[in-house]
Batch of 2 targets.
Target 1
Amino acid sequence: MTRSGSDIEKRIYLDFNASSPLVPEVVEAMQPFLAEHYGNPSCDHWAGTSARSAVERARSQVAGLLGCSPEEIVLTSGGSESNNQALKGAFFASRHKGEHIVASAVEHPAVLKPLEFLERLGAKVTLVPVDRQGRVDPESVRRALTPRTILVSVMHANNEVGTVQPISEISAIARRAGALMHTDAAQTVGKIPTRVDDLGVDLLSVAGHKLHGPKGIGALYVRRGTKIEPLVHGAGHEQGRRAGTENALLAVGLGAACEVAARWLGMPTLRALRDRFEQELKALLGDTISVNGAEAERLPNTSSVNFVGQVGADVLARLAGVAASTGSACHAGSVEISPVLAAMGVAPREAMGAVRFSLGRTTTWEDLQAVLAMLGERGSVHGNALEEHWERIHRARTEAASACQQRRSSTSVDLILGAGVGRDARVIDIGGGASRLADALLDRGFERVTVLDIASTALERAKRRTGARAGMVTWVAADVTTWAPRSSFDVWHDRAVFHFLVRKEDRQAYRAAMKAALKIGAQAVIGTIAAGGPDRCSGLPVIRYEPASLASELGPDFRLVESVHEDHLTRAGTTQRFQFSRFLRV
Ligand SMILES: Cc1ncc(COP(=O)(O)O)c(C=O)c1O
């Protein structure tokens, strides 16, 4: 597969925890309600009954996903209202029993702010801490309970980090103590199972737009028999629990989203994509990143990454066309350390660089690969960092293990000879520090061989290996994109260096260096490219080329004349197919 630089600039949406697009099934279900079904669901005539049956069907679809009965669902305007209704409603209905509420320190503002409000009305609130992974210890909830505790509210999963809380254990403790149990499940409904009986909750909040439903609608599950005071008083809508004419358009959207979500639960594909993304990021940036909540049970789609020592907003600014968040989505752009990460005890130097990537149904590996390539562009794998990367690779492996396992260096030698050059030809092997082409050329009597590599460790080893003959080779330790050649060459042998140049500027700089070095009588360019295979090589993102696309990178001065395949053994013991292409000057 070939990718051009412009692909990297395409729009990539990785902010599904902030909001998610309507899926086609939802759009289709909503369409007739924009114009045709305008009746008031409370009216008994034909216009009202068709709207009412749509609202009731939607209620059943929501109930189906939560495993409750439709009468236990109150339609609201979204996650924030559901949380407000649950907390304030429970407090107002139970204040004669007590005024103490327990919640976690990592709740969404849609829980923390209503709690602050209730404190002004006399509530006593205890926020239980979380551990380094963002987990609430059920024991700390037990310790926080008092005889006056009326409500425990712990979110099902955190919106920033994705940590999933042990809700069933916490609810068992709360309910045994006679307190109501609420969970803000805005981030879990539609992503992981959220059956109310499994969770053991009395109240559960749903936000439509987080599960590919419309914005402005949500639901509150209220277990049968649970007493909560309504916030909006009026006519008897929603069984007297929330006044206001139901919005059939949004309700059918939410219902359809819940039905679709039931088929999608668990997100196994997304989990695999997320895990691969994190592994590759680690391979690319090493200790300069850390992943929040990596050791906890997490939402399958969420990756909260700290770019250590950087500011999250700066990292995002470099990711052109990528929609992701620093800190909470509701405070995008803020460089303040997120209260969630602070509560987890993440060091400020790490937390400042936090970026949340949240994947969704339309996310592809290509999207994530493009992000990896962009993250690899600056500071981390270029200039000194690129040198450090290859030095690290070479130092970590023995010479034998790091030598490119080309089975026959004669493939390259044959192509070089096929270019019609004699043994006095000036040949340069770019990125050839760990290859044995120099040895093979010396064996054939070539006398003017240059090996260029960014890692001096690889060159030192090659020098030691070639022993007395090392003096016959010119060894150049340099980054080829910034290298100013002092002599010209007849044959330029590229050892897949092009693959690593994901930035257009680097490819241009490389081409300029090559042109300058080939200026006198140069005959051929031999390009080694990996055919197919993984999207990364030695921990770096790569661009895949076909011989034809490499030809277009080389420009009009060179014409593709021949391509041969050779299988190399990889370190993992598998076979990687390489393609050697010979380009002649036109
Ligand atoms: C955990 C959590 N709760 C509540 C909300 C608020 O939901 P809504 O936007 O529907 O009001 C959000 C949205 O960011 C959330 O992530």
Target 2
Amino acid sequence: MGSCLRDGVISAADETMVHLCSGLSPRLFAKLVRQLRAEGADPALKGRPWGLGFAERVLLVTAYWRTNLTMRQLAVLFGTSKSAADRIIDDLGPKLALRPRKRFAPETVLIVDGTLVPAEELPLLHQPPGRQWMFRWEQSCALQRGQSLPPVADWSSRVRMARMPSDHENAAGLVDQTPTADYDGFAEAFAAENESSLLNAYYARPAILDLAGDVAGRRILDVGCGAGPIFEELRDRGAIVTGVDPSIKMLELARRRLGEDAALQQADLNDPLPFPDDAFDDVVACLVLHYLEDWTAPLAELRRVLVSGGRLIVAVHHPFVYKLSYPDRNYFSTHEYGLECDFSGQSVLLSQWHRPLQAVTGAFIEAGFRIAVVSEPPPAPGAHEKFPDDVKTPDSAFLCFLFLVLEAP
Ligand SMILES: C[S@@+](CC[C@H](N)C(=O)[O-])C[C@H]1O[C@@H](n2cnc3c(N)ncnc32)[C@H](O)[C@@H]1O
């Protein structure tokens, strides 16, 4: 692919690069450029204030929105300076009517070993049905950085590139989803994925159950219970379980799995919980808290419903994975981002809240909890046999979620 670069930089005359950077056919890209010109997006200015032709500037903007390339990488690839790339994106971005970048999903890694490569050409890739391109994040880390970094499992086990727009879609088709935390729209697809996926069935779930230990006779609240897989396992181990979730569809699936007698209620962690004080011995919050902007009131509620000495058992996105995945983003601030996931073939842009490690631990401490366990476990036995591409050896481990046990005083 490196040979496609003329004079070492990307040119809008290069049809392969046009397609790669914009997702559009050369014909459609040319039409977009013409249209933008007609709308006055390329005003005649003295000199060459941008140092790049108009078509290249448009291409740089689309590449910025389509890929995870940083401004610095784009500047090198287009043969311009970072500050010029910055100004170009500021100037042309709004004219292309693209949403602010913070709302855009993380996309595929296009730089591998320093070479711009379309994801579909990598032998490591899965080519799923349709026109989706996928890239295995663990392998991307290995390719880019050698073995010096710990492998990182992507949160959806894959980082997905934005769907390639077809010829009848326009550039706006690159960013046409708003991040959501409402599972109603993809409940079935998520539940099916969750049932047997590496990250749920062979990682998060067994790790939570390990941390819970012997739960016979314990009253446990499963918050964000989804379709109830953890509820079911805890109940099988003799716990008296109650599940809550804001998603009616997830609760319907949980009801189907757990039966009419199961204690299931609709509840959102942003609101007060419908339970009296000291109602539970344990609370399980598996992959739920990262949907919440502010943990203060939810943690106070969880503390309230726990007995003294009770445990809050948590799995959240490991904040280091965010930093490893998006080195250019601000690790230290708490902020929302879109996480593009593939659930059983359904593409979903999840709204997630990143918070640095100090904010994660600080929130629990401020809520009055004592941190009893911090865990970065390996996947469960059998993961290697089931997912040999992701879990290379029986004792492979990766960073993905952070597990904690918090004790209520
Ligand atoms: C990734 S799923 C995890 C499901 C289950 N805990 C598991 O590990 O299999 C996230 C769940 O959190 C729920 N959720 C999202 N926002 C929530 C909120 N504000 N309060 C409680 N649950 C929430 C979703 O509806 C979804 O069922």
